Amino acid sequence: MRTPDEIIELVLNIARNDENIRAVMMTGSRANPDCPVDIYQDFDMVYFVRDVSAYWDNMQWIEEQFGKPSLVQKPESMELMPPDGDGNYAYLMIFPDGNRIDLQITRYSYYDDGEPSIILLDKDNGLPELAIKKDFWYVRKPNQKIFSDCCNEFHWCLNNVAKGIAREELSYAMEQLNHYVRDMLIQMLSWCVGVQHNFSVSVGKNGKYFKKFLPPQIYERFTKTYSDAAYEHIWAAAFEMLYLFGDVARDVAEQLGFLYDEDEEKGIENYMKKVKNNLLKYYE
Protein backbone atom coordinates (compact mmCIF):
# COMPACT_ATOMS: atom_id res chain seq x y z
CA MET A 1 0.00 0.00 0.00
CA ARG A 2 1.46 3.38 -0.98
CA THR A 3 2.19 5.69 1.93
CA PRO A 4 0.37 9.01 2.44
CA ASP A 5 3.50 10.88 1.37
CA GLU A 6 3.65 8.89 -1.86
CA ILE A 7 -0.01 9.61 -2.68
CA ILE A 8 0.36 13.32 -1.94
CA GLU A 9 3.52 13.49 -4.05
CA LEU A 10 1.71 11.76 -6.91
CA VAL A 11 -1.12 14.29 -6.75
CA LEU A 12 1.34 17.19 -6.65
CA ASN A 13 3.51 15.90 -9.49
CA ILE A 14 0.49 15.60 -11.77
CA ALA A 15 -0.37 19.22 -10.95
CA ARG A 16 3.18 20.49 -11.39
CA ASN A 17 3.37 18.98 -14.87
CA ASP A 18 0.00 20.31 -16.05
CA GLU A 19 -0.19 24.04 -16.83
CA ASN A 20 -3.98 23.93 -16.69
CA ILE A 21 -3.86 22.93 -12.99
CA ARG A 22 -3.03 26.06 -11.01
CA ALA A 23 -3.44 24.98 -7.39
CA VAL A 24 -3.97 21.94 -5.17
CA MET A 25 -5.84 21.73 -1.88
CA MET A 26 -6.29 18.83 0.53
CA THR A 27 -9.50 18.80 2.58
CA GLY A 28 -11.29 16.43 4.93
CA SER A 29 -9.85 14.18 7.61
CA ARG A 30 -6.23 14.31 6.45
CA ALA A 31 -6.33 18.10 6.77
CA ASN A 32 -7.84 17.85 10.24
CA PRO A 33 -5.32 17.53 13.11
CA ASP A 34 -8.11 16.41 15.45
CA CYS A 35 -9.04 13.37 13.34
CA PRO A 36 -7.58 9.96 14.27
CA VAL A 37 -5.08 8.72 11.69
CA ASP A 38 -5.54 5.30 10.10
CA ILE A 39 -5.10 3.50 6.78
CA TYR A 40 -8.77 3.97 5.83
CA GLN A 41 -8.66 7.76 5.50
CA ASP A 42 -9.50 9.11 2.07
CA PHE A 43 -7.30 11.58 0.24
CA ASP A 44 -9.75 14.42 -0.45
CA MET A 45 -8.02 16.52 -3.09
CA VAL A 46 -9.04 19.58 -5.08
CA TYR A 47 -7.46 20.62 -8.38
CA PHE A 48 -8.07 24.27 -9.26
CA VAL A 49 -7.93 24.55 -13.04
CA ARG A 50 -8.46 27.11 -15.80
CA ASP A 51 -10.60 24.74 -17.87
CA VAL A 52 -12.59 21.90 -16.32
CA SER A 53 -13.71 20.45 -19.66
CA ALA A 54 -10.32 18.82 -20.29
CA TYR A 55 -10.97 16.44 -17.38
CA TRP A 56 -14.70 15.91 -17.88
CA ASP A 57 -15.50 12.17 -17.76
CA ASN A 58 -11.98 11.48 -19.02
CA MET A 59 -10.96 8.05 -17.73
CA GLN A 60 -8.04 7.93 -20.16
CA TRP A 61 -6.50 10.90 -18.36
CA ILE A 62 -7.20 9.35 -14.96
CA GLU A 63 -5.57 6.03 -15.84
CA GLU A 64 -2.57 7.69 -17.47
CA GLN A 65 -1.95 9.93 -14.47
CA PHE A 66 -3.12 7.95 -11.42
CA GLY A 67 -3.25 4.37 -12.67
CA LYS A 68 -6.36 2.28 -13.20
CA PRO A 69 -8.76 2.36 -10.23
CA SER A 70 -10.39 -0.83 -8.97
CA LEU A 71 -13.60 1.11 -8.47
CA VAL A 72 -14.64 4.59 -9.53
CA GLN A 73 -17.70 6.80 -9.17
CA LYS A 74 -18.28 9.94 -11.23
CA PRO A 75 -21.18 11.80 -9.59
CA GLU A 76 -21.49 14.42 -12.34
CA SER A 77 -22.03 11.68 -14.93
CA MET A 78 -24.82 9.91 -13.04
CA GLU A 79 -28.57 10.10 -13.69
CA LEU A 80 -29.95 8.07 -10.77
CA MET A 81 -28.66 10.71 -8.36
CA PRO A 82 -28.70 14.01 -10.29
CA PRO A 83 -25.45 16.00 -9.94
CA ASP A 84 -25.09 19.53 -8.60
CA GLY A 85 -24.57 20.91 -12.08
CA ASP A 86 -22.09 23.50 -10.80
CA GLY A 87 -19.62 22.99 -13.65
CA ASN A 88 -17.11 21.08 -11.52
CA TYR A 89 -16.19 17.43 -11.93
CA ALA A 90 -15.28 14.76 -9.38
CA TYR A 91 -13.70 11.32 -9.45
CA LEU A 92 -14.12 9.08 -6.40
CA MET A 93 -11.54 6.31 -6.77
CA ILE A 94 -10.34 3.23 -4.92
CA PHE A 95 -7.05 1.80 -6.20
CA PRO A 96 -5.78 -1.80 -6.11
CA ASP A 97 -3.48 -1.06 -3.16
CA GLY A 98 -6.48 0.08 -1.05
CA ASN A 99 -5.87 3.83 -1.23
CA ARG A 100 -8.87 6.03 -1.99
CA ILE A 101 -8.57 9.41 -3.71
CA ASP A 102 -11.57 11.71 -4.01
CA LEU A 103 -10.54 14.25 -6.63
CA GLN A 104 -12.58 17.42 -7.14
CA ILE A 105 -11.73 19.43 -10.26
CA THR A 106 -12.99 22.99 -10.05
CA ARG A 107 -12.56 26.31 -11.77
CA TYR A 108 -9.72 28.41 -10.39
CA SER A 109 -11.40 30.39 -7.66
CA TYR A 110 -11.73 30.20 -3.91
CA TYR A 111 -13.28 26.92 -2.83
CA ASP A 112 -14.67 26.31 0.66
CA ASP A 113 -16.85 23.32 1.55
CA GLY A 114 -16.69 24.06 5.28
CA GLU A 115 -14.15 21.35 6.07
CA PRO A 116 -10.58 21.76 7.32
CA SER A 117 -8.31 22.45 4.35
CA ILE A 118 -4.61 22.74 3.52
CA ILE A 119 -3.23 24.45 0.40
CA LEU A 120 -0.53 22.15 -1.01
CA LEU A 121 0.32 24.12 -4.15
CA ASP A 122 -0.60 27.55 -5.52
CA LYS A 123 1.27 28.43 -8.70
CA ASP A 124 -0.23 31.92 -8.93
CA ASN A 125 -0.47 32.74 -5.22
CA GLY A 126 -4.12 33.45 -5.88
CA LEU A 127 -5.77 31.54 -3.07
CA PRO A 128 -6.41 33.28 0.24
CA GLU A 129 -4.67 32.23 3.43
CA LEU A 130 -6.81 29.56 5.07
CA ALA A 131 -7.71 29.82 8.72
CA ILE A 132 -7.46 26.58 10.69
CA LYS A 133 -10.99 25.23 11.01
CA LYS A 134 -12.51 23.03 13.62
CA ASP A 135 -13.93 19.68 12.62
CA PHE A 136 -17.27 20.19 10.87
CA TRP A 137 -18.86 17.78 13.35
CA TYR A 138 -18.05 19.72 16.53
CA VAL A 139 -21.08 19.63 18.81
CA ARG A 140 -22.89 22.95 18.89
CA LYS A 141 -24.86 24.04 21.92
CA PRO A 142 -28.63 24.09 21.25
CA ASN A 143 -31.23 26.53 22.50
CA GLN A 144 -34.53 25.50 24.07
CA LYS A 145 -36.43 25.58 20.76
CA ILE A 146 -33.93 23.40 18.92
CA PHE A 147 -33.81 20.99 21.86
CA SER A 148 -37.62 20.75 21.97
CA ASP A 149 -37.87 20.33 18.20
CA CYS A 150 -35.44 17.41 18.38
CA CYS A 151 -37.52 15.76 21.11
CA ASN A 152 -40.74 16.29 19.20
CA GLU A 153 -39.36 14.90 15.94
CA PHE A 154 -37.98 11.86 17.78
CA HIS A 155 -41.23 11.09 19.57
CA TRP A 156 -43.45 11.78 16.58
CA CYS A 157 -41.54 9.56 14.17
CA LEU A 158 -41.70 6.61 16.56
CA ASN A 159 -45.39 6.31 15.73
CA ASN A 160 -44.44 5.43 12.16
CA VAL A 161 -42.08 2.74 13.42
CA ALA A 162 -44.91 1.20 15.44
CA LYS A 163 -47.32 1.22 12.50
CA GLY A 164 -44.69 -0.23 10.19
CA ILE A 165 -44.06 -3.13 12.55
CA ALA A 166 -47.79 -3.74 13.08
CA ARG A 167 -48.33 -3.91 9.32
CA GLU A 168 -45.21 -6.06 8.83
CA GLU A 169 -43.79 -3.45 6.47
CA LEU A 170 -40.19 -4.29 7.23
CA SER A 171 -38.33 -1.84 4.99
CA TYR A 172 -40.60 1.05 6.02
CA ALA A 173 -40.30 0.31 9.75
CA MET A 174 -36.51 0.00 9.54
CA GLU A 175 -36.17 3.18 7.49
CA GLN A 176 -38.23 5.13 10.02
CA LEU A 177 -36.26 3.66 12.92
CA ASN A 178 -32.78 3.95 11.47
CA HIS A 179 -33.15 7.27 9.68
CA TYR A 180 -35.69 9.68 11.13
CA VAL A 181 -35.73 8.39 14.71
CA ARG A 182 -32.04 7.52 14.93
CA ASP A 183 -31.00 10.90 13.54
CA MET A 184 -32.64 12.58 16.51
CA LEU A 185 -31.17 10.07 18.97
CA ILE A 186 -27.71 10.75 17.58
CA GLN A 187 -28.35 14.48 17.90
CA MET A 188 -29.35 14.11 21.56
CA LEU A 189 -26.38 11.86 22.33
CA SER A 190 -24.16 14.46 20.65
CA TRP A 191 -25.51 17.11 23.02
CA CYS A 192 -24.83 14.74 25.89
CA VAL A 193 -21.18 14.63 24.81
CA GLY A 194 -21.19 18.39 24.30
CA VAL A 195 -22.44 19.02 27.84
CA GLN A 196 -19.79 16.72 29.31
CA HIS A 197 -16.97 18.35 27.31
CA ASN A 198 -18.10 21.96 27.33
CA PHE A 199 -19.00 21.76 23.62
CA SER A 200 -15.33 21.55 22.67
CA VAL A 201 -15.11 18.16 20.90
CA SER A 202 -16.24 16.51 17.68
CA VAL A 203 -18.37 13.36 17.68
CA GLY A 204 -17.62 12.76 13.99
CA LYS A 205 -20.09 12.14 11.20
CA ASN A 206 -23.09 10.10 12.41
CA GLY A 207 -21.60 10.05 15.90
CA LYS A 208 -18.78 7.73 14.85
CA TYR A 209 -16.70 8.75 17.90
CA PHE A 210 -19.46 7.95 20.41
CA LYS A 211 -17.54 4.98 21.78
CA LYS A 212 -14.73 7.33 22.73
CA PHE A 213 -16.85 10.06 24.33
CA LEU A 214 -20.07 8.59 25.70
CA PRO A 215 -20.19 7.10 29.21
CA PRO A 216 -19.76 3.30 28.82
CA GLN A 217 -23.23 2.51 30.17
CA ILE A 218 -24.84 4.94 27.71
CA TYR A 219 -22.84 3.57 24.81
CA GLU A 220 -23.81 0.02 25.75
CA ARG A 221 -27.47 0.99 25.68
CA PHE A 222 -26.93 2.71 22.34
CA THR A 223 -25.65 -0.54 20.83
CA LYS A 224 -28.91 -2.22 21.82
CA THR A 225 -30.89 0.15 19.59
CA TYR A 226 -29.70 -1.75 16.51
CA SER A 227 -31.91 -4.61 15.43
CA ASP A 228 -32.06 -7.48 13.00
CA ALA A 229 -35.20 -8.09 10.93
CA ALA A 230 -37.19 -9.98 13.58
CA TYR A 231 -40.18 -7.84 14.51
CA GLU A 232 -39.88 -8.56 18.23
CA HIS A 233 -36.28 -7.33 18.06
CA ILE A 234 -37.34 -4.18 16.21
CA TRP A 235 -39.87 -3.52 18.97
CA ALA A 236 -37.14 -4.02 21.59
CA ALA A 237 -34.81 -1.62 19.75
CA ALA A 238 -37.57 1.00 19.42
CA PHE A 239 -38.40 0.92 23.13
CA GLU A 240 -34.70 0.98 24.02
CA MET A 241 -34.40 4.09 21.85
CA LEU A 242 -37.36 5.69 23.59
CA TYR A 243 -36.04 5.12 27.10
CA LEU A 244 -32.42 5.95 26.26
CA PHE A 245 -33.46 9.17 24.55
CA GLY A 246 -35.59 10.17 27.53
CA ASP A 247 -32.85 9.53 30.09
CA VAL A 248 -30.27 11.45 28.09
CA ALA A 249 -32.65 14.29 27.21
CA ARG A 250 -33.55 14.79 30.87
CA ASP A 251 -29.89 15.06 31.77
CA VAL A 252 -29.14 17.46 28.91
CA ALA A 253 -32.16 19.56 29.86
CA GLU A 254 -31.04 19.75 33.47
CA GLN A 255 -27.50 20.71 32.52
CA LEU A 256 -28.62 23.43 30.10
CA GLY A 257 -31.60 24.71 32.06
CA PHE A 258 -34.15 23.51 29.51
CA LEU A 259 -37.62 22.02 29.88
CA TYR A 260 -38.32 18.44 28.77
CA ASP A 261 -41.87 17.48 27.82
CA GLU A 262 -42.66 14.40 29.91
CA ASP A 263 -46.22 14.24 28.60
CA GLU A 264 -44.96 13.95 25.03
CA GLU A 265 -42.77 10.99 25.95
CA LYS A 266 -45.57 9.31 27.87
CA GLY A 267 -47.95 9.86 24.96
CA ILE A 268 -45.81 8.03 22.42
CA GLU A 269 -44.94 5.30 24.94
CA ASN A 270 -48.62 4.58 25.52
CA TYR A 271 -49.33 4.57 21.78
CA MET A 272 -46.45 2.19 21.06
CA LYS A 273 -47.59 -0.19 23.79
CA LYS A 274 -51.16 -0.21 22.43
CA VAL A 275 -49.95 -0.96 18.93
CA LYS A 276 -47.55 -3.64 20.14
CA ASN A 277 -50.21 -5.36 22.26
CA ASN A 278 -52.90 -5.01 19.57
CA LEU A 279 -55.08 -2.84 21.80
CA LEU A 280 -56.23 -0.42 19.11
CA LYS A 281 -59.81 -1.37 18.17
CA TYR A 282 -62.59 0.25 16.17
CA TYR A 283 -65.66 1.10 18.19
CA GLU A 284 -68.40 -1.50 17.73
Would you kindly provide a brief summary of this structure?
Helix content is 44%, strand content 13%. The chain has helices at residues 4-16, 59-66, 144-166, 170-196, 210-213, 216-223, 231-256, 262-276, and strands at 21-27, 43-49, 71-73, 89-94, 100-107, 117-122.
- Give the helices and strands as they follow along the chain: HEEHEEEEHHHHHH
C-alpha end-to-end distance: 71 Å
Main beta-sheet annotation: 6 strands, mixed
Instruction: Report the total helices.
Output: 8
> What would you call the structural class?
alpha+beta
What does this molecule look like?
Helix content is 44%, strand content 13%. The model has no long low-confidence stretch (mean pLDDT 92). Strands 3-4-5-2-1-6 form a six-stranded mixed β-sheet, covered by helices on one side. It is α+β, with helices and mostly antiparallel strands and 284 residues long. It is built from eight helices and six strands. A hairpin with a 5-residue loop joins β4 (89-94) and β5 (100-107). It has helices at 4-16, 59-66, 144-166, 170-196, 210-213, 216-223, 231-256, 262-276, and strands spanning 21-27, 43-49, 71-73, 89-94, 100-107, 117-122.
Key terms for this structure?
284 residues, 6 strands, 6-stranded mixed sheet, alpha+beta, elongated
Give the arrangement of secondary structure elements.
Elements: H1 4-16, E1 21-27, E2 43-49, H2 59-66, E3 71-73, E4 89-94, E5 100-107, E6 117-122, H3 144-166, H4 170-196, H5 210-213, H6 216-223, H7 231-256, H8 262-276
Helix pairs in contact: 3-4, 3-7, 3-8, 4-7, 7-8
